């Protein structure tokens, strides 16, 4: 089963998932039950924008503003992977 | 080869008390439970949690025994949350009343794991040694009502593994986010009860088919973590991700260990009442004894998997051979592997029943 992400879906962190900066190791991490997921800079930038208010399209736009060219399919694929692992959940479009 | 000090523990397992309303015969708590009554104070635990966070820990698992028997649990949770730790309660759910749940929710508890002994009351209560099944279901529902993610912990063994399909169905009914199906590891009380707990090859094969199908069917809805029974494995597990590499355990009396089964190893004790967690983690003989790969004897020392298995489990090597420095006898390359084979053969004799008497652990 693969997940497809629609442009107007609104992502937020999954239930029981927290994101924080790990000072000791100088990196962002996702904290989940029994698991720590180390984020790279791109992942952290995307997940910071998953605030339960912005749409996927809105996130792509915000990333463009900050970093210039951002391929939307890369953002979609990243979020799809996290939805499948339940690190991120999609709420319904506005 | 390496013995470099890891950057810091990822997780603190705080075994707050060994007192427990349940009497499960597979309990990993030490046999001498009565020797652990002099528990750390609230202030001690708050200091331990803060020092662990300072060392780099990101998660705090609150376990026991039954952690809810500590009236100060919410205070310890609040301190852990203040330090940014992800807080995880591992509970039998007895004592998880509405008031207690609300108090923990307010303190910022992140996640709750509820143990189940089986999918139905008769067997579950028999294994738990006390009527508890209905209260567990009630508590599991309360976890969900308060918006926490729910994990169910089920220890699998000879007496319940044939019901794994029904256990999974019960977890689905409860709306669990995760279920851990962990085959018994033979430490503490489980070691004493091994003959009554070790499943047969046939039982395991059937369970694994069921679990594989359920994983496929429930993908994206419920996460299933299946912990393989290492007596039947070819290679040992990399216990705790390596000795003193990722996890830090503190037991009720303040002894700190790299593994929750390390009580009986012949190493000098390291206690948080007498030393800082930083010294214990970096320099104490308890944590440095088997760190890295330099301590390894053959066949591990010359094995291409030495960085994968990390020598297996020290506590299991000690339990089986009386020598914590030997290769984990679970490994098919271990010179002591016949010890594991003998236990497995016994579990597969045609006459062996699935309801052998269990020795219950005491409540305190």
Secondary structure layout plus pairing:
The complex is a heterodimer of chains A (94) and B (364).
Chain A: E1 10-13, E2 18-22, E3 27-32, E4 35-39, H1 41-48, H2 56-67, H3 72-84, E5 88-91
Antiparallel strand pairs in A: 1-5, 2-3, 3-4
Chain B: E1 11-15, H1 42-55, E2 59-63, H2 73-82, E3 86-91, H3 98-107, E4 111-116, H4 121-128, H5 133-145, E5 150-156, H6 164-173, E6 178-183, H7 188-192, H8 194-197, H9 201-217, E7 223-227, E8 247-250, E9 256-257, H10 277-283, H11 285-288, H12 306-309, H13 314-321, H14 337-347
Parallel strand pairs in B: 1-2, 1-8, 2-3, 3-4, 4-5, 5-6, 6-7
Antiparallel strand pairs in B: 8-9
Helix pairs in contact in B: 1-2, 2-3
Classify the secondary structure makeup of chain B into a structural class: alpha/beta
Mean of all residue-level pLDDT scores of chain B: 94
The figure for the number of domains of chain A is: 1
Provide the spatial order of strands within the biggest beta sheet of chain A.
2-3-4
Largest sheet of chain B: 9 strands, mixed
Number of helices of chain A: 3
- The H/E string of chain A reads EEEEHHHE
How far apart lie the N and C ends of chain A? 26 Å
- General shape of chain B: globular
Beta fraction of chain A: 25-35%
Overall SS class of chain A:
alpha+beta
Helical region count of chain B?
14
What CATH architecture label of chain A applies?
Orthogonal Bundle
Strand elements of chain B, count: 9
Q: Supply the CATH class of chain A.
A: Mainly Alpha
Rg of chain B, Å, rounded: 20 Å
CATH superfamily of chain A: Coenzyme PQQ synthesis protein D (PqqD)
* Protein chains sharing the most extensive interface: A-B, 19 and 23 residues
End-to-end gap of chain B: 43 Å
């Amino acid at each position: 089963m693969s997940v497809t992400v629609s442009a107007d879906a609104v992502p937020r962190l999954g239930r029981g998932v927290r994101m924080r900066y790990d000072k000791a190791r100088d990196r962002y991490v996702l904290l989940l039950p029994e698991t720590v997921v180390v984020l790279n800079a791109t992942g952290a930038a995307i997940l910071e924008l998953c605030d339960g208010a912005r749409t996927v399209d809105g996130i792509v736009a915000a990333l463009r503003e900050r970093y210039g060219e951002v391929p939307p399919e890369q953002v979609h694929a990243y979020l799809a992977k996290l939805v499948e692992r339940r690190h991120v959940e999609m709420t319904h479009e506005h | 080869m390496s013995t470099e000090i890891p950057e810091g523990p990822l997780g603190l397992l705080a075994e707050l008390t060994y007192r427990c309303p349940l009497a499960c015969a597979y309990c990993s708590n030490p046999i001498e439970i009565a020797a652990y009554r002099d528990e750390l104070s609230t202030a001690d635990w708050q200091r331990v949690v803060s020092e662990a966070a300072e060392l780099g820990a990101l998660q705090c698992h609150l376990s026991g025994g039954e952690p809810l028997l500590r009236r100060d649990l919410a205070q310890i949770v609040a301190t852990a949350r203040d330090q940014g730790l992800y807080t995880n309660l591992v509970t039998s759910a007895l004592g998880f009343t509405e008031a207690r749940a609300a108090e923990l929710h307010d303190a910022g508890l992140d996640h709750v794991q509820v143990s189940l002994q089986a999918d139905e009351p008769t067997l579950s209560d028999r294994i738990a040694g006390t009527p508890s099944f209905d209260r567990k279901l009630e508590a599991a529902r309360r976890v969900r009502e308060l918006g926490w993610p729910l994990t169910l912990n089920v220890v699998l063994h000879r007496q319940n593994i044939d019901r794994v399909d029904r256990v999974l169905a019960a977890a689905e009914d409860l709306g669990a986010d995760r279920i851990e199906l962990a085959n018994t590891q033979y430490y503490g009380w489980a070691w004493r009860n091994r003959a009554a707990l070790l499943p047969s090859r046939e039982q395991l094969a059937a369970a694994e088919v069921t679990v594989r199908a359920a994983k496929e069917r429930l993908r994206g809805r419920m996460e299933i973590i299946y912990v393989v029974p290492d007596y039947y494995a070819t290679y040992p597990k990399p216990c705790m991700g390596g000795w003193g590499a990722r996890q830090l355990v503190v037991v009720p009396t303040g002894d700190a260990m790299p593994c929750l089964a390390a009580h009986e190893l012949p190493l000098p004790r390291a206690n948080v009442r007498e030393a800082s967690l930083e010294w214990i983690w970096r320099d104490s003989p308890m944590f440095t004894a088997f760190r890295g790969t330099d301590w390894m004897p053959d066949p591990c020392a010359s094995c291409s998997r030495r960085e994968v298995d990390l020598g297996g489990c020290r506590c299991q090597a000690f339990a089986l051979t009386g020598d914590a420095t030997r290769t984990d006898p679970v490994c098919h390359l271990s010179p002591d592997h016949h010890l594991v084979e003998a236990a497995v053969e016994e579990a597969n004799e045609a006459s062996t029943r699935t309801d052998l008497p269990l020795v219950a652990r005491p409540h305190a």
